[in-house]
Specification:
This protein has 79 residues and is mainly alpha-helical. The chain is built from 2 helices and no strands. α1 runs antiparallel to α2. It is elongated and about 55 Å long. 6% of the residues are buried.
Amino acid sequence: MTKSYDPPLTTNPHGPLYRVDNAIKAAQQRLDAAIDMKRHHTNQNLAHEVIKEAREGLRKSEQLRLLKIKELAQKAAET
């Protein structure tokens, strides 16, 4: 259930979006782990809370990526 991003997530460690993209990848892994936990965990309320927190973390990471892209575009426009 991975989302496609425009521009795609970078794998270049020297790229300006590398840290932000790593945060997105980590948030996706946390969400996948939380969904797996829900399948195997008996306490559904706890599982729902963990999934909710993981989705919120992914959403925040995606928003940070958008802000970083806008910041880079603004710097490119200034030069």
